[in-house]
Amino acid sequence: MALFLALILVAVGLGIAGWVVKGLFFLLIIGILVFLADLVFGGIRIGRRHGRPRAAR
User: Fold this and answer.
1) What superkingdom does the record give (predicted)?
2) In the 8-state DSSP scheme, what is residue 29?
């Protein structure tokens, strides 16, 4: 979970830097790609967690 949140912060930071600083549009693109990769990574982790059967008591 910490890695997920850290990647979200990095993506937002790159996106803001790419949007604000003139000529660094590629940082905005990289930020968007990191954000999308983070969402896919988080979705895979959540999907695996729900797919496991519960242990019998």
Assistant:
1) Bacteria
2) H
